[in-house]
Amino acid sequence: MIRKRRKLPANKQSRTAGPARRSRNGAKPAESTRERILKSAATLFAEHGFEGSSMPAIARTSGITAGAIYKHFRSKGELLLEVVKRSFESTPLFIQDSATGAATELPRLASVYTEPELKLVRQLSIEVHSAASRDREVRRVLALSDEAAMRGIGDAISVAQRDGTLDPKINPDFAARLFCVLVMGLLHMDTLLPNLIGDKSWRDFVHERISTLIGSR
Amino acid sequence: MIRKRRKLPANKQSRTAGPARRSRNGAKPAESTRERILKSAATLFAEHGFEGSSMPAIARTSGITAGAIYKHFRSKGELLLEVVKRSFESTPLFIQDSATGAATELPRLASVYTEPELKLVRQLSIEVHSAASRDREVRRVLALSDEAAMRGIGDAISVAQRDGTLDPKINPDFAARLFCVLVMGLLHMDTLLPNLIGDKSWRDFVHERISTLIGSR
Amino acid sequence: MIRKRRKLPANKQSRTAGPARRSRNGAKPAESTRERILKSAATLFAEHGFEGSSMPAIARTSGITAGAIYKHFRSKGELLLEVVKRSFESTPLFIQDSATGAATELPRLASVYTEPELKLVRQLSIEVHSAASRDREVRRVLALSDEAAMRGIGDAISVAQRDGTLDPKINPDFAARLFCVLVMGLLHMDTLLPNLIGDKSWRDFVHERISTLIGSR
Amino acid sequence: MIRKRRKLPANKQSRTAGPARRSRNGAKPAESTRERILKSAATLFAEHGFEGSSMPAIARTSGITAGAIYKHFRSKGELLLEVVKRSFESTPLFIQDSATGAATELPRLASVYTEPELKLVRQLSIEVHSAASRDREVRRVLALSDEAAMRGIGDAISVAQRDGTLDPKINPDFAARLFCVLVMGLLHMDTLLPNLIGDKSWRDFVHERISTLIGSR
DNA sequence: AATGAATGAGGTTTCATTCAT
DNA sequence: AATGAATGAAACCTCATTCAT
């Protein structure tokens, strides 16, 4: 019953284009059923929302039956929760964590969200935050991650301020939060600014303005 | 707080054409059923999402039967669309209408979104954008409004740049867009930064940083 | 407040083709509302069946509101009944009655049912018989008419047998009934023999064979 | 009375492909749910028409829930279509298969329709033809069968004409068609001639007159 | 005589979930 | 670990009918 998570899902790796992604001996199917369910659910939740994604649909996308999902997750809600938890692994903002990301990396981190390839990440992130506004448990899990990320970013900014890289007159905590707010806004590019997705000059503009926002000199 | 109804859809009212459209006893304008449905739907869509709000629930909240809604709206989708259209009337960003739009007002406009009273507006805006990502027609209607608002803001910034109020080296179009992105991000405060809602110092911080963002000197 | 109805829908009236069918003084609309409802209902019942025709649809076709129908007919069932009664007026088989139709006319009477113009009559007749198999009262009314028609035809055949025009060895009663059965079958031409509708040689064949069937010499 | 299922639709069964398809304990073949649904639907469609038969009613008659029907048929329309296809198996006219079809058997084949036991077959046949006039797909399926049957009968008549059993001056194709028209008319006996159902002398009369109709000598 | 809002029942269909196999 | 039949609730929507105006 306990999540094992030996081989963390690494959701959208086909992007990196690694040549051989078979399992080590080629015998067993490269991905566990559980993993496939999570991936299908993430995609469907992102595209159609939680209520808009039916268990049969998720099952079909995973190549199994609806009933079978219940061998892996107790309910649709639990499946959502697991998807939410996993979503952090594909979200640039959360990934950087241990990296103790240099604050100078922040503008790039944000502007990355303007890329076409991250569409699913954007959609999923929005859906996760929507779900959080409706479900207690999702809210709790998400808050933990969000706060950790913001703390990390705040720390990075603090460090940079002591370095002299960033303007020390700006509250680093608030700066981190506003930074995240802006990233959150970028998640809506697909509906708000569909024409600017993948636009290089827009990306550069975002990069530059965010630098200013967090107090770059 | 009172609906102004400048440009009412004129769906079912132009028929009688009588100049006085009061209710039978002339007392209260007795908010029309149609109006009540729209208000209930807006609230429920905001709180539980489109798919999460059932017609019976909307009806109950409006004090009528589910079937009765169909005398006023052809389908749940059309009801959503009407709610989306109406939502612009309560959204600060759209209300400003470019007319008065001094660019100096922009930071205040954005920071207003951090207030507790606007929770419903925030939720509804998010839901509307979510719906847009799933429904063609909603997307179209929303895009029209979004673009109009961004154009208005862009113009205001241009003017201010010629005035010397704002830094003219910043692309005013992009600035308007990034401004909207940030506002979009602020809509998520309820899940992202619940503790900062209504926080005065945060509000001031947002105000100040946005000023910088759009190039205030 | 008063409906003007300048351009009434005039749905399916070109069939009867009577030259002047205006009301006596030309002032009032040529057809009473009641009449229009009956005609619309007949058409819709014929095309979509009783259950497939909704009161709103009938009302719309009649240029009025569903509620208004209830000023003229107590219920949908009663409307059906009235339509059934009226249907006899457009049905060749019933029309001949008083004519004490010479039996020699019978084959022509039947073969007339193969004409394209009678499509609606065919459909309505079938629907009426279908309704009869489900509704007691309709069954009663229809039985009365059917029996009268068959009696009339039987009598005509009897007369002709005494005349020597028809073979007297054939039971005239049964012959009349079988004749009606055949006509009933012809009602299904639209689905059974769509390609033969309006076909001259088929019509002649039917004419000739029916002559034989009833014992022509 | 037992289904023969010569040409079973093979919808969901080809999967297991095991030779023995008995129920778990080998006792009764335990009529499959699918079969039960089809039988209930056929009965109800015959008695109350397509629109007059609700899915809950069909389900109740089959001893299951309405939702369960959708595990076997995609929609009510598809269920109708399947019922239509199956209906041919119980319809004397289609069963004869032309193979054995001696034309001398035709009068008997038709007069069989006057029997009380065939009431359901009559009602279902009428309903199927009614449905055909309203639904494209049903029309297509029915036309195929109708045409095959008429071709078969036409061939049988041709053969008999060369044998000298039937009058060769009659167009065999038209004769087959008129024969079918008459059978179609007999389907309406329950409403048209309720008192003659099962009547021996009427049956003999029909038999004899049909012989004449197709040119017997 | 007619409207239009409203109801309450009922229609088809989908869904989350369970369970025997 | 998985299937597939089944359930029961609930969804959207339509309908026949009523009634104040």
Fold and architecture overview:
- Four copies of one chain form a homotetramer.
- By secondary structure, chain A is an all-alpha fold.
- Chain A has two domains: 25-73, Homeodomain-like (Arc Repressor Mutant, subunit A); 84-213.
- Chain A has eleven helices and no strands.
- Chain A has helices at 33-48, 55-62, 66-69, 76-90, 92-95, 106-111, 119-134, 136-163, 172-186, 189-192, 200-213.
- The longest helix of chain A has 28 residues, at 136-163.
- The first copy, chain A, is elongated and about 60 Å long.
- The N and C termini of chain A lie far apart (52 Å).
- Mean pLDDT of chain A is 86; it is low at 1-28.
- Chain A binds chain B through residues 47-49, 51-52, 123, 126-127, 129-130, 132-134, 139, 142-143, 146, 170-171, 174-175, 177-178, 180-186, 188-194, 196, 201-202, 205-206, 209, 212-213, and chain B through 47-49, 51-52, 123, 126-127, 129-130, 132-134, 139, 142-143, 146, 170-171, 174-175, 177-178, 180-186, 188-194, 196, 201-202, 205-206, 209, 212-213.
- The structure holds a DNA duplex (21 and 21 nucleotides).
